[in-house]
Amino acid sequence: MDGKSLLKTGTIDKEDVTGDLTCVRTLIANVCFVGRPSQRDWVLIDTGLEPTVNALEKEAEERYGCPPQAIILTHGHFDHVGGVITLSERWQVPVYAHPLELPFLTGNQDYPPADPSVGGGLMAGISPIYPHKAINLEHRVHSLPGDGSVPNLPEWRWIHTPGHSPGHISLYRDSDGTLIAGDAFITVKQESALSVISQEMELHGPPAYFTTNWEQAKESVQKLAALKPQRAITGHGRPVSGEELTIGLNHLAENFDKLALPKHGRYVQEHNS
Ligand SMILES: [Zn+2]
Ligand SMILES: [Zn+2]
Question: Which of 167, 211, 234, 243 has the fewest CB atoms in 10 Å of its CB?
Answer without folding.
Answer: 243
